What does this fold into?
Amino acid sequence: MNRRARIPTLGGATAYVLHRAHPTAQTLVRQLSAIGLTAIDCWPELPPAALSADFVFFDVDLGFDEQFPWKPGEAPMPMVALIGSEAPGRIEWALFTHRANAHVLKPVGTAGIYSSLLIARQNFEERKQLAARIDALQARVAERHTIVRAVAALSKDSDYEQGFARLRLLAMNWQTSIEEAAGRVVAMAENEDGNDRRHHA
It folds into this structure.
């Protein structure tokens, strides 16, 4: 595969431009249309339909959290910041609060829009993959914790190895995974503990 084949096509994508009526917004819409995107400008907030957009360009200078129909930093698509003022507070808001994936400096010209789209998409996908890996690792840690608790419940007066052997046998009998069996054992143990506490209350 050559390098050119790895660059995604953008034709047919939808981009919302969240910017007040201004030559900057007009220029950006024209450039996006020339690249092959459907560009929709809006202000002062994104409509619900923007949830299905492929990209969102947003004004950093006059932007505010309530403009977006999602929680800060949880945009479901690549975000491109339109930066005029380089005030630290505004940059921080764009990069850290709303986690912009790329940026374009104002005034917007005829160059830089295509590359910002590609960079934003790449950064967005990498961030999504990283989040998925973190979620998977956290799930594995939680599963291991559950297995330890299940083995402890099954061990009681015996040792750890016998408890794990019992868990393995239960998983075979239930025709399920060790993790699922551990979850059932922990749930049953917690239920028994709850019943015991009620009886002694």
In short: The two ends are 70 Å apart (CA to CA). The first strand starts at residue 14 and ends at 18.
